[in-house]
Amino acid sequence: MTQQVDISIPITQASSNPKPFTLYNITLRLPLRSFTLQKRYSDFTALHSALTSQAGAAPPTSLPSKSWFTRTTSSPELTEERRKGLETYLIAINDSDDERWRTTSAWRTFLNLPSNTISRSNTSTLRSALNGPGGSQPITDPVVWLDHHRDLKAQLHDARLHLTRRDQASTVQAQHEASTQAKKFLVRAGTMIQTLDTGLQNLSSASSWGTPRLGEGELRRRRDLLSSVKREKEGLENLLSAMAAKSAVDKTVADKSDSTALFGPAKPASGRVLGKESDKTRALGNQGVLQLQKQMMQEQDEDVMVLARAVARQKELGVQIQEELVVQNEMLGMLDEDVTRVQGKMDVARKRIGKIS
């Protein structure tokens, strides 16, 4: 498969965390987008070893040799020479007629290439991974993991679409069909989440699978992506449950209304009347009364929480007022002492003036 990508290393960048080293800015131009990666020389040596191992042969061009006596951070000439050599190395692999180095996971992971660079030999791996735990192979390729995540997002999007259709449906049959489809996509999403979780564990120790291990930053980013889709799936499941509960209440009310229209108002059952029936509960069945009671209890709990916050705030104000009163009492005590001391001095002065006069 010919890769539609242009590779160059136009500039370098110096970094000093924790020790001085040189970063090589790799610019990739794809048909739909362009982006830049930053790699160290040690990343290139790891790539070379992985390509040789996975492809069964060394790449067509060798890496520029390592200097044991001069560092690129202190020699602009060596930095420029190595930049040109690394650029030639990548271009030689990218333009080679032999595509076995470009079809390895090491090459795609190093350049963060999208899924359209996957070769035919890797198509079965992607398909088995997308089929979930029943697939023949686990996810050990970082690019396949991203493709699996993309497909999972599509499943959640379809589930949300069917939930919207269910909310807008006007017949019970249409609501049931939309609910069934949404549940199917959510079940499939749950299976895919388990596969992604297992695959992420494999990628965190990918050296055992023959592929370069992902960095901690990339692993953290993918864990965040997985947590996000888990929360999205749970939200859709809660929405589906709420819709089902609402439909049950609406059906109970509709059945009661139809019964009243046919047979006239019925007397409330003696087993449910603990006191006088209200207008809200008279038209509801047992399930509807239970739902209404839960809603009222929830509203009461929310009112109690608001009241509790107001009482806590009043308590804080009372404590602050008490602290302020203590400070004011101390200041008044100090003022009283000063007045007493000044009064004593004035008495002594009056006595001296009396003796002089």
From TrEMBL:
One of its GO terms (molecular function) is phosphatidylinositol binding. Residues 2-117 form the PX domain. Residues 53-81 are annotated as: Disordered. GO terms for biological process: vacuolar transport; vacuole fusion; vesicle-mediated transport. It holds the Pfam family PX. Transmembrane segments: none annotated. GO terms for cellular component: fungal-type vacuole membrane. Keywords: Coiled coil, Vacuole. Residues 294-356 form the T-SNARE coiled-coil homology domain. Residues 63-77 have a biased composition (Polar residues). The keyword Glycoprotein does not apply. It is found in: Vacuole. InterPro entries: PX_dom, PX_dom_sf, T_SNARE_dom. PROSITE patterns: PX, T_SNARE. It comes from the Eukaryota. Essential for proper morphogenesis of the vacuole. May exist as structural reinforcement on the surface of the vacuolar membrane and be required for maintenance against rupture by osmotic pressure. PANTHER family: SORTING NEXIN (PTHR22775), SORTING NEXIN-13 (PTHR22775:SF3). This is Syntaxin. The lineage of its organism: Eukaryota, Fungi, Dikarya, Ascomycota, Pezizomycotina.
